[in-house]
Amino acid sequence: METLSSAIVILMRWEVLIALLVGSIGGVIIGAVPGVGAAVAIAILLPATFAMEPIVGLTLLLGIYGSSMYGGAIPAILINTPGTAVNALTTYDGHPIARDGNPKRALSLAYSASFFSGIFSVLCLILLAQVLARVAPHFGSREIFLAALLGIVLVVLAHRGKVLAAGMMACLGIFLNTVGLEPVKYTRRFTFDQTWLASGIDLIVVVLGLFALSQAFLLLVDKDGRPESTRLEGGLFGGLKELWIYRRVATAGSSFGVLMGMIPGVGEFTSQFMSYSYAQKTSKTPELFGKGSPEGLVAAESANNAVPGAAMIPLLALGIPGEALTAMMLSVFYVHSVIPGPQLFADQMPFVVALYISLLLLNIFVLIFLVFSTNQILRVIRIPTRFLGVTILTLAFVGLYSLRNSMTDCIIGATFGILGLILKRLEWPIVPIILGMVLGGIMEVKLRSSMARIKSPLDFVDRPIAAIIFAAIVLVIGLHIWTYFKKSDKDGKVPEGR
Amino acid sequence: MAGKSRAARFFQRERLPGDLAFSIVFLLFCIFLISQLGEQAVWAKRTRLFAQPAFWPTVSLAGMLLFSLLHCFGSWVSPRTPGRGAEVLFWIRSLEYSAWFLLYVWTVPRFGYLGTTLLFTLILTYRAGYRKGNMLVGAALMGVGIVVVFKSLLQVKIPSGQLYEFLPDGIRNFMLVYL
Predict the structure, then answer these.
(1) Pairing relation of β-strands A180-181 and A188-189?
(2) What CA–CA distance (Å, rounded) separates A109 from A312?
(3) B44 to each of A102, A185, B36, how far by Cα in Å?
(4) What mean pLDDT, rounded, does chain A reach?
(5) Which long-range contacts (CB under 8 A, 24 or more apart) does A176-182 make?
(6) A352-395 per-position pLDDT tens digit
(7) CA-CA distance, A480 to A393, in Å (whole number)?
């Protein structure tokens, strides 16, 4: 009770509430604009949050992270263009419902499913993060190394059809993290006698280049477009009532979202497809899926919106980010010397509870905002894409230059911007670079410290948690190969894509 | 297709224009980095393998080489989609906007954040093909809005312009702190 009241005291300050409000509303708007997305916004705002108190900066970023998928459903449903990549599946059923003359119903159902799963995932975060935090003290160096390795393996294998490209990018990320002065012998690695490389390649610079600058370049070079949308009439409250009919699908979707969100490297896409497949298989009207099934819409929206809350579980309990956005948030923790992990729960429980409450609040803020402001958001969707590119480029300057006022950072950022543009055009994954950089650093330190106490390779997995994680790594790789060959045998040909 | 070996069919996938070209560039970059391993990373004496400064660069570069070799092979044996030249040209065109961005970065500490941003958004909006007054006014408002939010309100660390030194006393202090 004392912890709860301390958490409320932390939250009930005008800076925190404003950050939460701005983050939530800003996230919805950003999510609704096709071509921006939470990753771009968080990358731009990240350096600005370093000057803020940790709780203020984190609630701002959490607000954007947790609310962008709500906004992404709007263009997905109304104009068949997902606002964020993870809303792609929403177009399958959301748009047909809207096209058949029920845009209000589709939006209302999407908001309700997202709200339900948002709250569901925060409740899971509250329960599971505590459990994981209790288990976390049993995580020594080797367990953390193996968990990070599992994250890398999963992020590579999660990119079905692009596993080789994902592997290249993950290894590139690990390599980029090694550039500069190494922390034990203080020797230089791949600095080519350049002083500006001695301090390494900054993660934020890479993030800004790969996400923000690349998107700006892409929008500016590509053909100009201006999405059209029509005004909605009437209220958007009906979905909450209708969601009750699809409560089984919503609960299953949210559970998939939580489960996949917790596992590093997997995230929204896998959870959505699992949720969607489950809903279709168990539906009485599977033939409607892809043609305007409300169950399909609920399955897609509930699965993707449960991920942000769940992704915070390994981040808070173990300090291991599951995907690019939580990797960016990890840097906010580090900048303020707040180290996620079991110690955070022991020393700063009110801070952790304040984060939980802010996640709950943001879902409520967003739902209220959306019910009353969807028509205003529709105007933002109509921003021409090249103009959006100019805006992102101008904003990216703030993020990049305010870090260290360094022209070099901007040149590196621009280089990664061009790399990001090429990767996006080739449809190669970008996220493995970021996770490679973050998890590569963790792996290097943890392997080094754990090997000091290891005599034979088997010692590495002689503790129960280490053995379980190791088994999970072997199982995941084995399953990937098995499903690949199984598909090959079933089809009578080698399936496309690795 | 029938003439291709099982290994070739195993690695076949969708190949977008430019995929092979970029894969080869990536592979060459990787080979270059590997060739530098001896010079750019140290194998220390009396140090265990996992604690070697060169251990992780070696592991990551080996991984990059392995994956990019397989990827290049996959690209090589996959059916080609025409349009490589146009795609590479698309990539090259992004250099122009990269140059605009770096020019903006170079100008801010000299001419000040507000003026440079205003000019940058206007010129770039014009360059992006918007010639109507409403878009240019929108660009100017957007530029001013970004400066006010980040520099004036959030006090983000962006240096003041050298040009501000020539302003009259009263305005100069205001400009130095807020714009």
Answers:
(1) antiparallel
(2) 26
(3) 69, 9, 16
(4) 85
(5) A176/A201, A176/A206, A176/A433, A176/A436, A176/A437, A177/A201, A177/A436, A177/A437, A177/A438, A177/A440, A177/A441, A177/A444, A177/B56, A178/A440, A178/A444, A178/B41, A178/B56, A178/B57, A178/B60, A182/B53
(6) 888 889 989 999 999 888 888 887 887 777 788 899 899 999 98
(7) 40
- Cβ contact A402–B150 (<8 Å): yes
- Identify the pLDDT of residue A490: 62
User: In 10 A of CB A97, how many CB atoms?
Assistant: 23
* B68 → closest Cβ in A168, A188, A436: A168
Share above pLDDT 90 across residues of chain B, in percent, rounded to a whole number: 64
Q: Which residues contact A482 (CB under 8 A, 6 or more apart)?
A: none
Between residues A295 and A459, which one has the greater pLDDT? Answer: A295
Residue type, B158: I
pLDDT above 50: residue B67: yes
Cβ-based contacts of B154 with chain A (< 8 Å): 48, 51
Looking at per-residue pLDDT, the higher value among B95 and A491 belongs to B95
Mean pLDDT of A277-290: 88
Q: Which tokens sit at A79?
A: 């104009």
**Tokens coding B120:** 């940058």
Among A322, A310, A303, A369, CA closest to A117: A303
**Encoding tokens for residue A458?**
């088997």
Structure confidence by residue, pLDDT tens digits, B110-140: 999 999 999 999 999 999 999 999 999 999 9
Cα separation of A424 and A431, whole Å? 11
Residue of B nearest to A442 (CA): B56
User: In this predicted model, what pLDDT tens digit does every residue of A130-143 receive, in sequence order?
Assistant: 787 777 778 888 88
Q: Which residue has the tokens 């997202």?
A: A114
Q: What is the pLDDT of residues A290-343, one digit of tens each?
A: 888 999 999 999 998 888 888 888 888 888 887 778 888 888 888 777 888 778
Structure tokens at A190: 């791949």
Q: What is the rounded average pLDDT of the residues A477-492?
A: 75
Q: Across the strands, what pairs with A189?
A: A180
Q: CA–CA separation, A269 vs A88, rounded Å?
A: 9
Name the band, by pLDDT with cuts 50, 70 and 90, for residue A489: low
Which candidate, A165, A143, A166, places its Cα nearest to that of A446?
A: A143
Residues in A closer than 8 angstroms to B41, CB to CB, are: 178, 187, 189-190
**Mean per-residue pLDDT for A79-103?**
81
Q: A401 at the B interface (CB within 8 A)? A: yes
Q: For residue A283, what are its two tokens? A: 């539906």
Q: How far is A183 from chain B (nearest CA, A)?
A: 9
Residue A28 near residue A70, CB atoms below 8 Å: yes
Q: Is A347 on the interface with B (CB under 8 A)?
A: no
**CA angle A364–A212–B178, rounded 5-degree value:** 80
Give the ipTM: 0.94
Mutual angle of helices A247-262 and A307-318, in 10-degree steps: 30
Residues of B in contact with A384 (CB under 8 A): 130, 135
Instruction: Supply the DSSP string of B115-177, one letter for each residue.
Output: HHHHHHHHHHHHHTT--SHHHHHHHHHHHHHHHIIIIIIS----PPPGGGGGS-HHHHHHHHH
B68, closest residue in chain A (CA to CA)? A168
Q: Which two tokens stand for residue A286?
A: 């599977």
